Amino acid sequence: MSYRLGVDVGGTFTDVLLVEEATGATWRAKTPSTPADQSVGVRSGIGKVCADAGIGLHEVAQVLHGTTVATNAILEGKGAKVGLVTTRGFRQVLQIARSYVPGGLAGWIIWPKPEPLAALENTVEVDERIASDGTVIRELDEADVRAQLGRLRGRGIRALAVSLINSFAGAAHERRIAELAAEELPGVPVSLSSDVLPELREYERTVTTVANGYVQPQVKHYIETLAGELGKSGVAGELAILRSDGGLSTADAAVASPVTMLLSGPAGGVTGAVWVAEQCGYRDLITFDMGGTSTDVALVQDLSPRIGRETKVGDLTVRASSVDVRTVGAGGGSIAHVPELTRALRVGPQSAGADPGPAAYGRGGTEPTVTDANVVLGNLPPALAGGEITLDVAAARDAVEKIAEAMGLPDAETAAAGIVDIVNENMLGGLRLVSVQQGFDPRDFALVAFGGAGPLHANALGRLTGAWPVIVPPSPGVLCALGDATTSLRDVAARTVLRRFADLTGDELGAILRELADEAGERLAAQGLAKDAQEVGFEVDVRYHGQGFEIPVEVDRAWLDGPGTALEALASRFDAEHDRLFSFLLSVDHELVNARATVTGPRPEVAPLTLPEGTGDPADALVDTHPIHVSGARHDARVYDRAKLRAGDVVTGPAIVTEMDSTTLVLPGHAATVHPSGSLLINPLEA
């Protein structure tokens, strides 16, 4: 038998999913995350799930891992001290940055400008200059380079970033600096902008390269430690890391370019949601991943997640492809509070996390959280995770009553309903960011809800957005781990072209894209992916000549094979997207800015789960009744064991469906139909 193991590390829990490829059978484990050393929780979860499946660790063929190590290094400011080498005259490139201040017109008054990841005192200039067409204007002064690197050696830097002006057009000087750095700064990892982001715009290229160096030592230590510990424990399979764009990198490739994995964790959930939606027959969907600390949302069209050209983590924005995920500081552990100044109820972004966690977990937490509110409302039965977790209802009520007292509300149920309503509205804002504000009507999409807390709020979010059906996959609490286990190797090659269409031919465009495909394909071949198993996709950034911004446009490979049609088809598609986004077109010539080739491996063959046919009546799965409070009224909700539901069974609300890693709430006036693949499809009942 062949087994794949997906691992996802969240802020509260580490999820592990073991998949037997031939049958689609799965085993899952959920263990508390260990922020001090994430590998401890990972190893614990892997050992637990393999024991549950009755297999040895040596039988695991691959460990596919979505990690937040790089993300946390930036959010917590715990990355390496980075030295930066620039062309003379460009030392303050990170300080000047871009003239964008978040917030309203007066946002600059209260906005604390974030400090660059490479301090000015750790930034040096070297004598050299390359023109934008790649010609050398001034040769590199190697004696000067050695002197400047010596200054950085005295500053105790642990990573070096090299970003010279126009290095996207010619990388020779950067590569020579890397050779000199190996002599002057032995053991210090070097990130070159011509490798990390070979595109124009010196600020974006520099900040991305510096970010790569900032997280690299920590990522390297984590991955090498985890790989070593897995090897010692008997895991024979290779370790692969999920990229921000939903693809996989080998462990070595991830260490070399960690900036590509800043959104590694959320990308796994989107990949898993696409896999689940496809089994249910839906191709357009919005993903809704609610965990203990935050909620991640993304939009998918025709089973293809929207890929953005920027990755944003905290105050940092880098130019790296990633699934267009928006994060809201709202989760099951989000703390409710009433500020003295406004006396208005607030929920989050502070979280109780894994330790001590919500008051209901009985680990010493006393602050009222969203989980506690759900316990008070009856949405969460007293036992979770198949009986492994027993909730402290009295502690949850005591915590929520603090909110009732602070706001002068009559009882804990009223306060709890307010907490849940506010967190739902917070998450609705995130869903609108990826739908309405991008020009999409959420009513045209299904809503796939997962994460430990997602299915509990999914029905309410479906009602707020009008997105139906709400799809709750099997094992929703570990869907990110399923996404990790069902994704494939990926690499991207990019180049700045900067040519007007009038000065470009379709054959030249095709030659550029094929060169990039060969470049990315060679890297994947070195990682063990045969050329004949590789799939290639092309994308270019286009703008009207004279514009200062561009729009990414997918290139159909068929355009490159037709006689002289590529540029016309590309211009037409760009015009359509420009009109959709801005409602106007220009009559000037188009301009090609950047070209990219994405090469991926085949998606792993994992057999989908197929449930036996049921009668439509879920009576055999009924285990209890439990009072819940909805819209100020008390209802008796039927409680079902999800493991006993069969295909075609219809669960009519009010109802609670329990399983090991999550709980699904079906509201009055709605019904959940069990799909043969195991997902619950929630829809409003017809009036």
What are the salient characteristics of this protein?
alpha+beta; 9-stranded mixed β-sheet; 6-stranded mixed β-sheet; 18 helices; globular
Structure, described:
It comes from Prauserella endophytica. This is Hydantoinase/oxoprolinase family protein. Pfam families: Hydant_A_C, Hydant_A_N, Hydantoinase_A. By secondary structure, the protein is an alpha+beta fold. About 35% of the residues lie in helices and about 25% in strands. It is built from 18 helices and 37 strands. The strands form 10 sheets. Strands 13, 14, 15, 20, 25, 26, 33, 36 and 37 form a 9-stranded mixed sheet that branches. Strand 11 and strand 12 (about 250) form a beta hairpin. Helix 10 packs across helix 15 and helix 12 (about 395-405) crosses helix 13 (about 410-435). The radius of gyration is 26 Å and the shape is globular. The two termini are about 50 Å apart.
Shape: globular
Q: Helices and strands: which structural class?
A: alpha+beta
Percentage of β-strand residues: 25-35%
The count of DSSP E runs of length 2 or more, i.e. the number of strands, is: 37
Low-confidence stretches: none
**SS element count, helices:** 18
Give the terminus-to-terminus CA distance.
50 Å
Radius of gyration: 26 Å
Q: Please estimate the helix content.
A: 25-40%
Mean pLDDT: 90
Describe the largest sheet: 9 strands, mixed
